[in-house]
């Protein structure tokens, strides 16, 4: 594929300048001769790496047989990470794969983020460079292992030639190549020679039974730098002459600048320039404090006629009104009408889910340097191809004139995977408007972040289900109302089919339970609040509605929630597997201590299966305290089990924070929250003890970044249902107080 | 206005708007970027440093108020020479348990944890919750933070 073959929808919607097809001789996997090897890898990045420490750096005498690794004479192995690492462990995961096949030593592994290149570094799940949907490891599993195996074969070939022995008699272990005769050499000693060996076409990959790192232990590569403060995030980048930019942003979605008075802002020492840009009014200052003060001081009169003026209460009321009429069909089996007629008991519940902000710990930010003919962009770029293409378009530059440097991101949870690349776009808009070739760092304050939109959409659901006389579910109607994440974006063709945005119904239309008569339908609403995927996307709401409903039905049927589910999961061994494992490890069925309640939920997302058992108690004021969560996950082969566990722990905390207290609300079109006081997030005192159990598996690895998030809230709600009899249909849970029945 | 402050053991003079939060003095003027910005409003703890030995939110302390005082940042508790035994133990425990995910909150977490362990060498879960509740981690690494504090306490 070439740059111009990018999916039409992507290029079409961006209307980006058609990039020149890259020079194939520079781009293809080439055999590299010693000495200049690294130069070839590097030749791809335009020569502007003044900005930022990222991008492949030349090391002489290196072995660099492919774009994914470099073995240097100093005995380091640098793994080139094609995906953003925003905490999910991409760097560690991809390094694990290379180290495994290379038989490297953990201590010699370094990582470096790849430059933007939609061909070499594409995500096979998207066809362009970027990461999301928990695809990072799954799409790289063979690729990075092969990269490591290739280098290993070349190191062996070089050793065989040097020692004049047969390659078959050479072994590699922990970064040392040795021969039965006692000869041995480090990778570094062989790198230069190995670079002269031919690149094997199809290097043999290890038999999984011989793995030393995969499925075992490979400590995070980023822990030391993240513990001593040296890991550089976008916001940490500093360059000579750099200006800091803030933007006075509209108070309502869709409001535009009518007029502004910059006099108070301009009088602040350090403010260099106040500039109107499409996003609002930009302030450029020599230091961050001046830029923040000026953002507060600037007076803007906003044109609100085109803005969204509805509040959350109005939206919920409008959405609820749609619940009585059928939506667009996402799934239909059997005859629902007859089944409801025949049912002996009907259970119905309406659910409300608020907007949610991602609120990554590092607010959005981007550094740009633009001189009229070339540019560097430095940011935690999650969709490199889109961000790069956006920069090219805004700045009117050819792809080869723009370098995108990906750096560590202080979280994302979906926030940095943004179709319109607005955080890169606005930086380029400012750079272009300013017109001077100085680096500019745009920062968002926390208020910009919380009020800035791109939320998990507000949704309203209705589930109506019927039980027969044996307490079996015979009818299931699930109606969902909410905004589409994909519509109007370059992802539309991928996500929206026959009027159904898959992210609105995922987790609902693939309900795993054997129910003969079932219908899932969707009303897609329109509105001015920009929405986005939020860690685990559709499952953030569908898992809660479906799994809480299952417990309501189990209760009506007088059945045990685990047994009730298992009876409907006969054809779903992986759902059943995690459910049984979590139940067993949690001591399901044994009496819980007085004052504690236990609940369970199971859900599949991103091709991984997760079950949670939550032990919950109530505080004196009737608020909810989650004491322990036992989590079972089946994610295929767990490449790095400790990273899997960490993602489950973190996913549970992230999901629980939203379930307990997360809500963005609007009044008259204005967001009512602005910082972590109004938009409260989970704190350490609210974090349950978490136990993670991984189902042993030889299936290909699937996602772990997201699947841990959506299961805890329904598990907690189910515990509350059992202990208090109260249904949790309106989230977050702090909207109500619970009272124990016992 | 010019101020003199001891930063990580070094007397340093700074010339800034007296209202400038210490956070931005550290990050912009002194290029000590280990201390992070998360909220600017004492709500997240990402900016935690030690002022005269006590954990404080640097986003809430103005430059004028640090004149003549002693500030320690994450850079100051790192490395053989400068780290106290408590700081070393905390950082080693953090690495041993691979606490960090995105890592952005971790310098603040570590400064708070060092503050806690300096005052209470063997903290209970309750002590940890109280001392660390102001430090948000959006990756929710809390589970491991708790474990790492206990781990560090064992080795001090
Ligand atoms: S930045 Fe100071 S507490 Fe959040
Ligand atoms: S590790 Fe990401 S915010 Fe704490």
**N- to C-terminal separation of chain A?**
64 Å
Reported for the largest beta sheet of chain B, the result is: 5 strands, mixed
User: How many individual domains of chain B?
Assistant: 2
The number of distinct helices of chain A, counting runs of at least 4 residues, comes to 21
Major protein interface: A-B, 64 and 58 residues
| CATH uppermost class of the largest domain in chain B | Alpha Beta
DSSP strand count of chain B = 5
Instruction: Tell me the count of domains of chain A.
Output: 3
**In CATH, what is the homologous superfamily of the largest domain in chain A?**
Aldehyde oxidase/xanthine dehydrogenase, molybdopterin binding domain
Please write the CATH class name of the largest domain in chain A: Alpha Beta
- Structure class of chain A: alpha+beta
H/E element order of chain B:
EEHEEEHHHH
Shape of chain B: globular
Quick summary of this structure?
Chain A has 21 helices and 29 strands.
Describe the overall structure.
The complex is a heterodimer of chains A (742) and B (156). Chain A is built from 21 helices and 29 strands. With 742 residues, chain A is α+β, with helices and mostly antiparallel strands. Chain A has 3 domains: 33-222, Aldehyde oxidase/xanthine dehydrogenase, molybdopterin binding domain (Aldehyde Oxidoreductase, domain 4, 2-Layer Sandwich); 234-305 and 364-443, Aldehyde oxidase/xanthine dehydrogenase, molybdopterin binding domain (Aldehyde Oxidoreductase, domain 4, 2-Layer Sandwich); 312-355 and 455-735, Aldehyde Oxidoreductase, domain 4 (2-Layer Sandwich). In chain A, strands 10-11-8-18-15-16-17 form a 7-stranded mixed sheet, with helices on both faces. In chain A, strands 13-23-20-19-14 form a 5-stranded mixed sheet, sandwiched between helices. A 4-stranded mixed sheet of chain A has the order 1-2-3-4. Chain A starts with 7 loop residues before the first helix and ends in an 18-residue tail after the last helix. The model of chain A is unreliable at 1-59 (pLDDT under 50). Chain B folds into 2 domains: 2-77, Beta-grasp domain (Ubiquitin-like (UB roll), Roll); 83-155, DNA polymerase, domain 1 (Orthogonal Bundle). Chain B is built from 5 helices and 5 strands; from the N terminus they run E-E-H-E-E-E-H-H-H-H. Chain B has a 5-stranded mixed sheet, sandwiched between helices. In chain B, strand 3 and strand 4 (54-57) form a beta hairpin. Chain B starts with a strand and ends with a helix. The interface between A and B is large, with 64 and 58 residues. The complex binds FE2/S2 (inorganic) cluster (2 copies).
């Amino acid at each position: 594929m070439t740059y111009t073959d990018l999916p039409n929808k992507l290029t079409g919607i961006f209307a980006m300048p058609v990039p020149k097809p890259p020079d194939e001789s520079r781009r293809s996997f080439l055999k590299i001769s010693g000495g200049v090897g690294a130069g070839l890898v590097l030749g791809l990045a335009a020569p502007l790496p003044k900005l930022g420490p990222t991008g492949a750096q030349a090391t002489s005498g290196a072995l660099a047989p492919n774009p994914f690794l470099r073995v240097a004479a100093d005995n380091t192995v640098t793994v080139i990470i094609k995906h953003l690492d925003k905490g999910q462990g991409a760097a560690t995961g991809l390094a694990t794969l290379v180290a495994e096949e290379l038989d490297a030593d953990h201590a010699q592994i370094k990582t470096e983020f790849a430059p933007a290149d939609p061909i070499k570094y594409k995500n096979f799940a998207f066809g362009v460079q970027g990461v999301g949907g928990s695809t990072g490891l799954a799409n790289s599993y063979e690729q990075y292992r092969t990269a490591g195996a290739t280098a290993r074969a070349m190191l062996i070939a070089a050793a065989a030639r040097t020692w004049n022995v047969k390659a078959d008699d050479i072994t590699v272990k922990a970064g040392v190549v040795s021969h039965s005769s006692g000869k041995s050499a480090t990778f570094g000693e062989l790198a230069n020679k190995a670079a002269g060996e031919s690149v094997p076409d199809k290097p043999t990959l290890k038999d999984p039974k011989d793995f030393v790192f995969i499925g075992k232990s490979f400590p995070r590569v980023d822990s030391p730098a993240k513990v001593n403060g040296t890991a550089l995030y976008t916001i940490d980048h500093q360059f000579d002459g750099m200006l800091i930019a803030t933007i006075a942003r509209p108070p309502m979605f869709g409001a535009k600048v009518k007029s502004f008075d910059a006099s108070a802002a301009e009088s602040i020492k350090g403010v260099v320039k106040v500039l109107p840009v499409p996003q609002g009014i930009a302030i450029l200052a020599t230091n961050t404090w001046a830029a923040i003060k000026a953002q507060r001081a600037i007076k803007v009169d906003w044109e609100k006629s085109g803005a969204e003026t509805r509040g959350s209460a109005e939206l919920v009321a409008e959405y609820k009104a749609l619940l009585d009429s059928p939506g667009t069909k996402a799934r239909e089996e059997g005859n629902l009408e007859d089944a409801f007629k025949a049912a002996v008991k009907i259970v119905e519940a309406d659910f409300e889910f608020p907007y949610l902000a991602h609120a990554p710990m590092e607010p959005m930010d981007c550094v740009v340097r633009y001189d009229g003919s070339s540019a560097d962009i430095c940011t935690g770029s999650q969709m490199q191809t889109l961000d790069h293409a956006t920069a090219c378009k805004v700045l009117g530059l050819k792809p080869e004139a723009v370098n995108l440097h990906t750096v560590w991101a202080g979280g994302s949870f979906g926030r940095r995977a943004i179709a319109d690349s607005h955080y890169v776009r606005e930086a380029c808009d400012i750079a272009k408007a300013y017109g001077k070739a100085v680096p500019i760092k745009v920062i968002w304050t926390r208020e910009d972040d919380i009020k800035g939109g791109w939320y998990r959409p507000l949704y309203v659901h209705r589930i109506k289900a019927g039980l027969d006389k044996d307490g079996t579910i015979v009818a299931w109607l699930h109606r969902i109302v909410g905004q589409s994440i994909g519509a109007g974006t370059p992802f539309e063709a991928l996500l929206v089919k026959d009027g159904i945005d898959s992210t609105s119904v995922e987790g609902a239309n693939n309900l795993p339970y054997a129910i003969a008569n079932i219908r899932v339908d969707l009303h897609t609403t329109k509105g001015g609040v920009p929405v986005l995927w939020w860690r685990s996307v559709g499952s953030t709401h569908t898992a809660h509605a479906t799994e809480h409903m299952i417990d309501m039905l189990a209760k009506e049927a007088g059945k045990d929630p685990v047994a009730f589910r298992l009876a409907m999961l006969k054809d779903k061994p992986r759902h059943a597997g995690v459910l049984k494992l979590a139940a067993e490890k949690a001591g399901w069925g044994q009496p819980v201590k007085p004052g504690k309640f236990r609940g369970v939920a199971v859900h599949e997302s991103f091709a991984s299966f997760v079950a949670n058992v939550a032990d919950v108690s109530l505080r004196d004021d009737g608020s909810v305290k989650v004491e322990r969560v036992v989590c079972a996950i089946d994610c295929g082969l767990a490449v790095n089990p400790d990273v899997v566990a960490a993602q489950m722990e973190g996913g549970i905390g992230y999901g629980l924070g939203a379930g307990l207290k997360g809500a963005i609300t609007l009044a008259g079109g204005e967001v009512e929250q602005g910082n972590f006081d109004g938009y409260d997030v989970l704190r350490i005192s609210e974090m349950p003890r978490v136990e993670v159990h991984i189902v042993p598996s030889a299936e290909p690895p699937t996602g772990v970044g997201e699947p841990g998030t959506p299961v805890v809230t329904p598990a907690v709600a189910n515990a509350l249902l059992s202990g208090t009899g109260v249904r949790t249909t309106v989230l977050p849970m702090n909207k109500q107080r619970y009272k124990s029945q016992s | 206005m010019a101020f003199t402050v001891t930063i990580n053991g070094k007397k340093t003079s700074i010339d800034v708007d007296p209202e400038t939060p210490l956070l931005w003095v550290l990050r912009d003027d002194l290029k000590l970027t280990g201390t992070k910005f998360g909220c600017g409003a004492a709500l997240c703890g990402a900016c935690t440093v030690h002022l005269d030995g006590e954990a404080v939110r640097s986003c809430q302390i103005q430059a004028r108020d640090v004149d003549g005082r002693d500030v320690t940042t994450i850079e100051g508790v790192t490395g053989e020479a400068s780290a106290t035994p408590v700081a070393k133990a905390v950082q080693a425990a953090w690495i041993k348990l691979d606490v960090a995910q995105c890592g952005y909150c971790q310098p603040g977490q570590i400064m708070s944890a060092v503050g806690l362990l300096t005052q209470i060498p063997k903290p209970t879960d309750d002590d940890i919750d109280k001392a660390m509740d102001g430090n948000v981690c959006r990756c929710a690494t809390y589970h491991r933070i708790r474990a790492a504090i206990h781990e560090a306490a064992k080795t001090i």
